[in-house]
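As noted in the main text, all predictions were made from sequence alone. Below is one such record, for F-box domain-containing protein.
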Amino acid sequence: MTGLDELVDTADSPHQGASACQDCGVYISQIQNTSLPLTIESNTDCSSDVINPIPMMPMIRTDIASLPTEILLHIFKLYYLHYSDAFPKGTVKDLQCWPILGVCSRWRQIVIGTPYFWQRLWTHWHPEIITLFEVRSKSYPLTIQRSSSGGFLLEFPSCDSEGNAVAARLIAAHSSRIRTLRLEWMDWYPETHETKYEFMRRCLADATFPELTQVLLRSVNHYMAMRSMKLNAPKLEVLTLRNLVLDSTSYPHLANLTHLTHIASDLTVQDIVSLLEACPQLESCDIRTRTLETPLLLPEQPHRVPLRALEYINISGLYWPSLARLLDRLEICQTANINLEIEPGERHDPHPLDVFRRIITPLISSYDSLEISGRGIKLIRSTERGSLNFEPDNSKYSVFAHFSCRQYISASVTQHC
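Prediction:
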């Protein structure tokens, strides 16, 4: 019997833990250098699986059996989170909390009857395990997760090698109660069949998620931004996109979005502005792109996008003229923390100092203190919240970028003063 079969058997067997007593009051611990006597409790009926591995351990009766169910649930949740939140995720490690089911019948019934322990599942798990989670989570919110490796790279037997079928079935069956959706995929042979990107795009476009609040969508091997991804989730609050760009028809569903992470190559100023304009409640924004060619800047638009709730924004990878254009289009409150990761100016413009002055001059009047460190240069407000931080691009040009950045800031500050 494999380890997976044992887990399924443990979770399914109606008699599992029958040898353990309802009064599971024996706690075994190692006690050294104490005067406590070695006491062997009689008639404990404790499972031999607990006692036999450590034959000469002191046995101390505790009150754990008399704890209220609410306290036991709190303990079980801590134990569960210890495994489910550790790396790597999506492996058999996520099921390590299942030995609780074999301690005694009371513990087993508490875990089985509590949907909290059955709300997070991975698409590459064994079908029987997935079914257990679907049933025992009842009507409570679900978290559906899919690894781009399908479990293979995580040393776990994958039952969803293509990655499409299980994810599509779960989305179709439970779209009304999915609260968190984390889908990653990788196209190995996109020329031979419908790509996973095309399949997942169609799958998500056909679904409506009335309770969905957190989404991560990642196309692993697409280094160019794949566009036209659709998502119908009116309660969405947290969105992470990697190598993907949302279709504009999804923008009306972003009215409640508070946290955005968007990582994709060749994002244009208009891509970013249109997306942020759809997010009036945005509090945290992380935009990272990589532009290979000098972008064609369209004529400037007269209106600016207000970001009144914004507390933090990071922008990296834009050419300096594009960065200047983007900052011109955004109305960022003075209390926000702004982080700009920049590359050497000479790669973007023959007159980088002029461009840099255009970036910093409209912002600098809001700050009264300057901090210079080996990592970056920060302008701060000494009496209120809000900062403007410049960091060098994390690449082989970073040393030069930091030097030129410091040089340009110094010149801009001097000119402003």
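The longest strand covers residues 178-185. The two ends are 76 Å apart (CA to CA). These features were considered when defining construct boundaries for the mutagenesis experiments described in Section 2.9.
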